C-alpha cells in the first residue's frame, strides 16, 4: 500500500449541484410541492391576485404569477442561492414565524431539477429583471418589460432526475394534489383572488370574498346553506371555522381542513377526535366536511417534526385538542338542538337482583301471547308486530327452573311449533324465500340451509352487467324526461372529464358544460329514478377511493364503483318476486359465490352442522 493511498481522504465535499438535488428530494416531492412553494412566496410578497397555470399535471409546465411586491435585480439572483430567505434574520425568528415559506431552500431546489425562468418588477421601478436557469445553473440575466410582481415559470420538472420523474403518479393523481394545494391556499386566504388553469381550461376563478363564500366557490353552492359556523377565543388560542351539515358527508376523505396560523397542517389525533363528533349523525365510513382555523403563538408549536412541515406538534397538546373539541361540539349541538345533559355516575351493579329486575322489565314491555304464530295465514313474514293482550302473561312460578320457564314462554313450542314447521317446509320446498332483518335471503336446499347476502349478491350482479355493458356498442340507458344540470367540485369535474368515455360506455349520458357543470340526459337502467345526480357523485368518490385499495384496471374500477353505489343496501325490504329475481340473476353470474372484492355472497349450512349445534 502506497503512502498516497493512505493519505487520500475518504470523505469528499459534494458539489453544489448534487447538494441542491439532495435538498430537492426533501422539498420537491411532486409538482404540487412546486405549486405550494411558489404560492407561499406570492402570499408572503403581499399579492392579492395569484394565477396558476399547469400543463400535464405540472410535469411540463408550472407557472405562478402574482402582483406582489416584486424583487430587485440583486434579490432576484440571491433568492436562488441555498439558505437565502427574507423571513429569518436571527435565531429568535425561528420561534415567531408567521409567514408561509421560510426554509430558504425552496427556490434553489426547484431550479436544480427544472428549466426555470423568473421575471420580477418592483412597483416603483421602470422595468423589471429576468433570469433563466437550467438545472440550477444561471444561463442568462437581463432587464425585461414585465408587470408589477413576480412570475415564475417551471418547465420539464425532474428532467435531469429521471428516477424521480418515473415515480410520479398518473396525471389525474398529480392534478388532484395540485388542486388540494390550491384549495388550501384559497381557504386560508379568502381575500386573495386565485385563478387555476389546467390544459387551457379554467378550473377556478375565485374573487376576493368571505370564507363561507370561498367554501361555496370551491366545493359547490350547496355548501353555502349547510355550513355551521363556530368561533372562540381563549388565552391559549383563537379558533374559528365551519362544520358541515352531515348531509355533506362523503364516502371518501379529503374535505377536512386544519390550519394553524394560516398554514395547513396534519394532526392524526385531532382529526380523529373531530371526526368522532359526527358519529351520531353519519354512517360508518362517511366523512363530514369541516374547516378549522387555529391562531396560536408560534412559540407554542413545533413545525419541524416533519421534513415537509406538514405535521406539527403543540406545546400543550391536550388543551388544544380539548378546546377544539368543545367548541365544535357546542356548535353542532346548538345546530341540532341537542340538550347538554348533566353527567351522572352510574349506580353500582347488583348481581343479586339484576336478573329479576331485567325479567320484570321484559314482562312489562313484552308480555307473552301463546297464540302468536309469527306468520299470517297464507302469507310470508308479517310486517306488523303482534300485540298480545295483558291477560296472557305467564307469571313467574316458584319451584320451576329458569330453563323450564323460558321454554313455557317460547312461542315455538308444542302444537304451534309443529304446525308452523309443517307449513314452512311445504313453502320452502316450492322455492320460498324469507328475508332476514331486511339484509339476508334465506331458503332451504336439499342438504340444509342457504343464506344469501343481498348487498354482496347484487354487487356481483351489477359488476358483471356493467363490465358487459362497457364492451357493448350500445349500452342500456334510460333517458330522463328532463335533463338535469349538476355542479361538481373542481376535483370531481376533473375526474369525470378523465373517465368520461368509460362513464358513457356503462350507460350514463353525460355532457360537459362550462365551468364545472355537467348535463345528465340518461343513466343506466339499474339506477332508481331520482338518484341520478347523487349516483354520479357517489360513483366518482368510490372510483377515487378504489384507486388506493384495488389493483383493477380503469374499466373494472368504474364497474365496481358503480356496483358498490347502485347495489341494494342492507336494510331494504324486498318482495318475494324481487328475491327470486335476485337469486336467479346471481346464479347466472360467472362467479356467483363472491362479490368483486372476494366477500362471500352465499353461506351454506348443512343438516349435519345444524344437528350438531342442537346437540
What keyword list fits this structure?
5-stranded mixed beta sheet; 615 residues; 8-stranded mixed beta sheet; 3 domains; alpha+beta; 22 strands; Heat Shock Protein 90; 19 helices
In short:
With 615 residues, this protein is of the alpha+beta class. The chain has 19 helices and 22 strands. 37% of the residues lie in helices and 21% in strands.
What does this entry look like structurally?
- By secondary structure, this protein is α+β, with helices and mostly antiparallel strands.
- The N and C termini lie far apart (85 Å).
- It contains 19 helices and 22 strands.
- Helix 7 (171-188) packs antiparallel against helix 8 and helix 14 crosses helix 18.
- A hairpin with a 4-residue loop joins strand 20 (509-512) and strand 21 (517-524).
- It has 3 domains: 16-208, Heat Shock Protein 90 (2-Layer Sandwich); 212-336, Ribosomal Protein S5, domain 2 (2-Layer Sandwich), CATH 3.30.230.10; 452-602, MutL, C-terminal domain, regulatory subdomain (Ribosomal Protein S8, Chain: A, domain 1).
- The strands form 5 sheets. The protein has an 8-stranded mixed sheet. A 5-stranded mixed sheet has the order 9-10-13-11-12, with helices on both faces. Strands 16-17-18-22 form a 4-stranded antiparallel sheet.
- 37% of the residues lie in helices and 21% in strands.
- It is elongated.
Amino acid at each position: 500500500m502506497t503512502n498516497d493511498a493512505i493519505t487520500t481522504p475518504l470523505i469528499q465535499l459534494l458539489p453544489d449541484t448534487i447538494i441542491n438535488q439532495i435538498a430537492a428530494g426533501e422539498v420537491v416531492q411532486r409538482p404540487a410541492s412546486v405549486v405550494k412553494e411558489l404560492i407561499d412566496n406570492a402570499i408572503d410578497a403581499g399579492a392579492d391576485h395569484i394565477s396558476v397555470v399547469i400543463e400535464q399535471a405540472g410535469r411540463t409546465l408550472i407557472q405562478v404569477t402574482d402582483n406582489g411586491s416584486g424583487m430587485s435585480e440583486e434579490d432576484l439572483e440571491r433568492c436562488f442561492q441555498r439558505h437565502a430567505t427574507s423571513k429569518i434574520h436571527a435565531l429568535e425568528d425561528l420561534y415567531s414565524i408567521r409567514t408561509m415559506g421560510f426554509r430558504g431552500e425552496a427556490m434553489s431546489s426547484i431550479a436544480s431539477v427544472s428549466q426555470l425562468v423568473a421575471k420580477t418588477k418592483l412597483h416603483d421601478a421602470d422595468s423589471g429583471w429576468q433570469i433563466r436557469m437550467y438545472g440550477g445553473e444561471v444561463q442568462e440575466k437581463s432587464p425585461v418589460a414585465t408587470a408589477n410582481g413576480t412570475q415564475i415559470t417551471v418547465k420539464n420538472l425532474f428532467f435531469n432526475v429521471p428516477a424521480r420523474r418515473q415515480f410520479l403518479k398518473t396525471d389525474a393523481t398529480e392534478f388532484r394534489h395540485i388542486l388540494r394545494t390550491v384549495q388550501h391556499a384559497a381557504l386560508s386566504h379568502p381575500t386573495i383572488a386565485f385563478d387555476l388553469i389546467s390544459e387551457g381550461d379554467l378550473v377556478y376563478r375565485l374573487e376576493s370574498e368571505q370564507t363561507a363564500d370561498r367554501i361555496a366557490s370551491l366545493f359547490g353552492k350547496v355548501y353555502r346553506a349547510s355550513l355551521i359556523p363556530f368561533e372562540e377565543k381563549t388565552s391559549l388560542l383563537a379558533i374559528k371555522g365551519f362544520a358541515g351539515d352531515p348531509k355533506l358527508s362523503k364516502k371518501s376523505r379529503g374535505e377536512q381542513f386544519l390550519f394553524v396560523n394560516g398554514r395547513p397542517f396534519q394532526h392524526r389525533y385531532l382529526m380523529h377526535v373531530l371526526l368522532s363528533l359526527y358519529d351520531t349523525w353519519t354512517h360508518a365510513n362517511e366523512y363530514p366536511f369541516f374547516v378549522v382555523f387555529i391562531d396560536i403563538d408560534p412559540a407554542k408549536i413545533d413545525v419541524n417534526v416533519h421534513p415537509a412541515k406538514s405535521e406539527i406538534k403543540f406545546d400543550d397538546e391536550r388543551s388544544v385538542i380539548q378546546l377544539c373539541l368543545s367548541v365544535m361540539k357546542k356548535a353542532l349541538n346548538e345546530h341540532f338542538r341537542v340538550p347538554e345533559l348533566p353527567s351522572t355516575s352510574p349506580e353500582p351493579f347488583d348481581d343479586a337482583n339484576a336478573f329479576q329486575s331485567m325479567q320484570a322489565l321484559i314482562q312489562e314491555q313484552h308480555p307473552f301471547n301463546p297464540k302468536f304464530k309469527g306468520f299470517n295465514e297464507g302469507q310470508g313474514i308479517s310486517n306488523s308486530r303482534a300485540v298480545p293482550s295483558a291477560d296472557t302473561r305467564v307469571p313467574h312460578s316458584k319451584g320451576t327452573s329458569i330453563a323450564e320457564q323460558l321454554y313455557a314462554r317460547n312461542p315455538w313450542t308444542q302444537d304451534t311449533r309443529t304446525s308452523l314447521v309443517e307449513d314452512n317446509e311445504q313453502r320452502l320446498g316450492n322455492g320460498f324465500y324469507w328475508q332476514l332483518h331486511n339484509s339476508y335471503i334465506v331458503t332451504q336446499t336439499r342438504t340444509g340451509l342457504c343464506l344469501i347476502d343481498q348487498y354482496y349478491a347484487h354487487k356481483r350482479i351489477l359488476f358483471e352487467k356493467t363490465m358487459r355493458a362497457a364492451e357493448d356498442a350500445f349500452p342500456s340507458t334510460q333517458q330522463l324526461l328532463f335533463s338535469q344540470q349538476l355542479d361538481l367540485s373542481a376535483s370531481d369535474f376533473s375526474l369525470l372529464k378523465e373517465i368520461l368515455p368509460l362513464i358513457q360506455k356503462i350507460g350514463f349520458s353525460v355532457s360537459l358544460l362550462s365551468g364545472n357543470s355537467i348535463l345528465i340526459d340518461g343513466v343506466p337502467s339499474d339506477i332508481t329514478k331520482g338518484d341520478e345526480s347523487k349516483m354520479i357523485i357517489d360513483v366518482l368518490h368510490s372510483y377515487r377511493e378504489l384507486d388506493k385499495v384495488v389493483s383493477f384496471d380503469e374499466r373494472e374500477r368504474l364497474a365496481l364503483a358503480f356496483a358498490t353505489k347502485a347495489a341494494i343496501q342492507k336494510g331494504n325490504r324486498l318482495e318475494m318476486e324481487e328475491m327470486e329475481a335476485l337469486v336467479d340473476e346471481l346464479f347466472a353470474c360467472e362467479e356467483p359465490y363472491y362479490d368483486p372484492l372476494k366477500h362471500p355472497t352465499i353461506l351454506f349450512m348443512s343438516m349435519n352442522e345444524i344437528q350438531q349445534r342442537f346437540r
